[in-house]
Amino acid sequence: GFSSSATAGRGGQGVVNVLTSNLAPFTNPSEKDNRAAVVLTRGEGVYVYDTDGKKYLDGLAGLWSNALGNGNERIIEAAHAQLKRLAYQHTFWNRTTDIAEEYTSRLVDFGRHRGVVQTFMSCGGSDANDTNVKLAWYYWNAIGQPSRKTVIARKQAYHGVTITASSMSGMETIHKGYGPLPLPWVRHVSTPHYWKYGLPGESEEEYSARLAKELEAVIVREGPDTIAAFIAEPVMGAGGVIPPPRGYWGSIQSILRKYDILFIADEVVTAFGRLGERLGSEFYDIQPDLYTVAKAMSSSYYPLGAALITEKVADAIKNQANKFGVFGHGYTYGGHPVACAIGLECLNIYEEMQIWDHVKRMTPTFQLTLKQLETHPLVGEVRGEGFMLAIEFVADKASKSQIGTKVPPATILANECMKNGLLVRSTGHVLVIAPSLVYTMENFQEMFTKLKKSLDSFDEIVYKELPELPRD
Ligand code: PLP
User: Fold this and answer.
1) Predicted model pTM
2) CA 462 to chain centre
3) Ligand 1 center from residue 158 Cα (angstroms)
4) Closest Cα to atom 12, ligand 1: which residue?
């Protein structure tokens, strides 16, 4: 059976060689070390277990998404009841289901205080971002400005991997090897990372103003009448958790308003409480025209995403679609009954718990405790907001040069964490932590203890390989 072949590869340590049947996402198919994958079999709250029964504290909530942890009986019951009642019907051609109507009206209520009046349902973040780009194009055609096609995104952004989302993502890994990516209607502006790219003597506000000027220069160069939308994550996530510098969102938003450019907030990670507010846009007081949500929307119990649409766009689309008779877009599984039942129960739970307030209360413990790691001689910056945090390693704090270990430093630390029963993520030189939204004080204490222990072995490994690196 699967479990015996799963444990065969490495003497029963809960690992298996990957890339045999499934081409594994974001995994190097040729590197020997990357071929060993941990095989997880079960989960309980914020813990998961591998094939050997080893227990891990999940420090990344799956993929920043499993907000309520595993085994939530209410969600399981809601899914089960819906499967029994009506497993599938679509929402096409003037037909719908009671559960899709109930859930989408609740989603609109969820975003109404930020201008949301309508939803368009998808199965995840990438296809919801595709939808938002189509909505933006449709909008401009509808109001008689069909020359507006270009989307401005940011370097290091992650918006997913469909061809549209890949194009908007600002990461080389996603474009490399695919020829025509990114598609020609995308432009990328700078990552707003003050610690890394701020000039000597430049304040955060001055840096933000410089980035707003850069955005304006791109708009003017391209021609304002060619720009459809600007897309951004309120806090950059997969790019290495980069909260905006002071003044950034105010300056950027005033440029977007000046040139009448639609603002798409990719809130796939930040919506539903991760920053301590219902929406990340609320945390930064930005007013997007379109929102992309997914992940915590279903606490990852089911594939689910949506475009949340504000009045300005919704009205124009309605008028435009009247010309064609229909709105020509829709996924078989958009508004899936089981997804909607799960999403609805998640929303009920979030509202009852006021999960965003829990996050807000726990944020100082999480952020301030780990901020202390900046005293480590090889830690350049600890940054984050809410339940998103990154630790960036450097060989030299002044020049911010990278540590030249054969295995990148954050990967060394992530591997040690894994040995010590803590799942976190490495992007090479940056370690990313994004716990479930239900983390208790005890969960955080356990995370800190495991991280500290892992850092001790990290020191041993790194200084052994590169003894010349700075020490305490
Ligand atoms: N947008 C952001 C900000 C994300 O972090 C992700 C996934 O990590 C996506 C979009 C893509 O979502 P999905 O993987 O559900 O397609």
Assistant:
1) 0.95
2) 30
3) 7
4) 125
